[in-house]
Design a protein that fits this description.
Layout: H1 2-21, H2 25-35, H3 40-64, H4 70-92, H5 96-121, H6 134-151, H7 155-166, H8 171-197, H9 204-224, H10 230-251, H11 259-286, H12 295-299
Helix pairs in contact: 1-2, 1-8, 1-9, 2-3, 2-10, 3-8, 3-9, 4-6, 4-8, 5-10, 5-11, 6-7, 7-8, 10-11
Length: about 300
């Protein structure tokens, strides 16, 4: 019972972050399941099963608050579903011994990317209003979907920064569109895991606990996306993901580091994480207040036909 409550709280926290930042539900939840001893394929399958419900709720909430561009959802979501199905079937064929360190390395890379991306660069908006093309969204969806299924997360960490980096959509619509399109990715990945694994190793109780926490957080996260500083949240989440997966790797069979090495590594990560948070807070305070969106801005198309 205690485990289920902790998972529900983890799902709530992960969805708050994901719904307001456009990433990290899968990465955070999968990292926690791996730390609890679940094998990689089953962890990713459990998280994606829960995400079918959380992404549906999150997409509906973002739509209600006007955060969704449906053309972008279709153009990145369908290719993302193809990539997710392929990634799920690929991960299902790997042995647990081979998959666990590989997944931790992938999650570590995604965590580093999130940490550096938001701490150093923030959110570019220089090309706001320019169209996003199919030839950009299609390949991005396939790659992000594949990484999402194989890493237990990656749709947001790959898709959200890539679109934000273009500066062509306002952040709230990037986040809302990525969260909404993730429903297609979650369904496709779940079907891929069912094809590759059956129900073996998938803990339905854990999936339901993650789902319940996510459902509670989804509407609040969609509202918070207009108020929470994404730069600070990105630095906080990125550091947490890095710390957790470094811990998994250092304790795993690949490295089997001693206590002195482990605690030295943790100390260095904590120091870098704290510095990143301080920098993000300072840069957020120095940044000029964003221009309020006008009715004309809301009506402007963000994707070409």
């Amino acid at each position: 019972m205690r485990t289920l409550i902790l998972l529900a709280l983890a799902g709530l926290g992960a969805q708050l972050v994901d719904g307001s930042l456009g990433m990290a539900y899968g990465v955070t939840s999968t990292t926690l399941l791996l730390a609890a001893g679940t094998n990689p394929a089953a962890a990713s399958a459990t998280v994606h099963l829960a995400e079918i419900g959380t992404t549906l709720a999150s997409g509906a909430a973002h739509w209600r608050f006007g955060n969704v561009d449906w053309r972008v959802v279709a153009r990145i979501g369908v290719p993302g579903a193809v990539g997710a199905f392929a990634g799920a079937t690929f991960l299902s064929q790997l042995s647990t011994e081979a998959a666990e360190p590989l997944m931790s390395l992938l999650l570590l890379a995604l965590g580093l990317y999130v940490l550096v991306r938001f701490t150093v660069q923030g959110l570019p908006t220089g090309n706001l209003g320019k169209p996003l093309r199919k030839r950009f969204l299609g390949p991005l969806g396939v790659v992000a979907g594949f990484m999402d299924a194989t890493g237990g997360g990656g749709w947001g960490p790959v898709g959200t920064p890539a679109i934000l980096a273009s500066g062509r959509m306002e952040p709230r619509k990037v986040i809302g569109s990525i969260d909404t399109s993730e429903f297609l990715v979650a369904v496709a990945a779940s079907l891929g895991f069912l094809y590759g694994l059956g129900s073996e190793g998938v803990n339905a109780g854990w999936a339901i606990a993650l789902l319940v926490g996510g459902l509670v957080a989804a509407p609040l996260a969609a509202w918070l996306v207009r108020h929470v500083p994404p730069r600070i949240l990105g630095s906080a989440v990125g550091g947490l993901i890095v710390l957790t997966n470094v811990r998994t790797l250092l304790r795993g069979d690949w490295i089997s580091a001693g206590d002195a090495v482990q605690w030295t590594a943790y100390g260095i990560i904590y120091a870098i994480w704290a510095a990143a948070l301080v920098h993000s807070v300072r840069e957020h305070r120095r940044a000029p207040a964003p221009r309020a969106a006008t009715a004309k801005d809301e009506a402007a198309p963000s994707a070409s036909v």
